[in-house]
Amino acid sequence: MMLRAEFTTEPFEGEGEPPAHAVAARDCLRAAGLEPDFGPLGTSITGDRETLLPALAKVVETALDTGANRITLQVTVDGTHDDEV
After folding, report:
1. pTM to 2 decimals?
2. How many helices (H) and strands (E) does the chain have?
3. Are 30 and 51 in contact (CB under 8 A)?
4. Which SUPFAM superfamilies would you find in this protein's record (predicted)?
């Protein structure tokens, strides 16, 4: 089963370099063999359930350890629409 996840880590630090917690979250996904779409307001990633769920658990742990004080996460079964879930 393929999943799509979108998450943000806070606090936002405005313009300039992304905060350490956002970079650390992205790097966790890369270490799991995934390539996230990393943006200024959040990160999205698609992957198989067996790979993505453990990687997301590590993302939450690592982001908190590197300064995040809030993580907002949404996971959707890829290929479904919000009104079908």
Report:
1. 0.87
2. 2, 4
3. no
4. MTH1187/YkoF-like (SSF89957)
Q: How far is CA 11 from CA 14, 39, 54, 67, 69, in A?
A: 9, 15, 24, 8, 6
Q: Is residue 67 part of a domain?
A: yes
DSSP 62: H
The total number of residues written for the chain in this structure = 85
What is the rounded distance in angstroms from the CA atom of residue 77 to the CA atom of residue 84?
A: 10
Q: How do residues 5-21 score in pLDDT, each as one tens digit? A: 999 999 987 788 899 99
Structural domain containing residue 29: 2-80
Q: Are strands 70-77 and 2-10 parallel, antiparallel or unpaired?
A: antiparallel
Q: Residue 11 is encoded by which pair of tokens?
A: 């606090």
Angle of CA points 9, 74, 68, to nearest 5°:
15
**Domain contains 50:** yes
